[in-house]
Design a protein that fits this description.
The structure is a single chain. The protein has five helices and four strands. The chain is mostly helical. The strands form two sheets. The protein has a two-stranded antiparallel sheet with strand order 1-2. Strands 3-4 form a two-stranded antiparallel sheet. The longest helix has 31 residues, at 81-111. It starts with a helix and ends in a 9-residue tail after the last helix. Keywords: DNA-binding, Repressor, Transcription, Transcription regulation. Residues 1-68 form the HTH merR-type domain. This is MerR family transcriptional regulator.
């Protein structure tokens, strides 16, 4: 299928599909006329990429994890399980830091007489 059809079937813009290809996440072949064509499983690959991005993974990690995904869903073969756990630990650390920052800011706002900060 051509890039326009892939964009239509996935709801992902052509520029973003090209970016995925530049990052090595999506593979295309070129016709003699220079047009990109994608395999029939490309919509599934794009859905997987989108899900991994929504989970907060950088494209570098997605490129390493993507070959480990099996089936039609998001069943990840254990080949990159530790890497995913490390990503999760990093995310947990960033969330804890954000909570601390929010508490500090809430205390500053309360000290300004601006009333109670919104509940989280």
């Amino acid at each position: 299928m051509r890039i326009g059809e892939l964009a239509e079937r996935t709801g992902v813009g052509v520029r973003l599909l090209r970016y995925y290809e530049e990052q090595g996440l999506l593979v295309s072949r070129r016709t003699p006329g220079g047009h990109r064509t994608y395999a029939e499983d490309a919509p599934l690959v794009v859905r997987r990429i989108r899900m991994l991005l929504e989970a907060g993974l950088p494209t570098r990690v997605i490129g390493e994890v993507l070959p480990c995904i099996e089936g039609d869903g998001m069943e990840v073969h254990p080949c990159r399980g530790e890497q995913l756990r490390e990503q999760l630990r990093g995310m947990d650390r960033r969330i804890a830091e954000m909570r601390e920052s929010r508490s500090s800011l809430a205390a500053i706002v309360a000290g300004c007489g601006a009333g109670s900060p919104p509940k989280s």
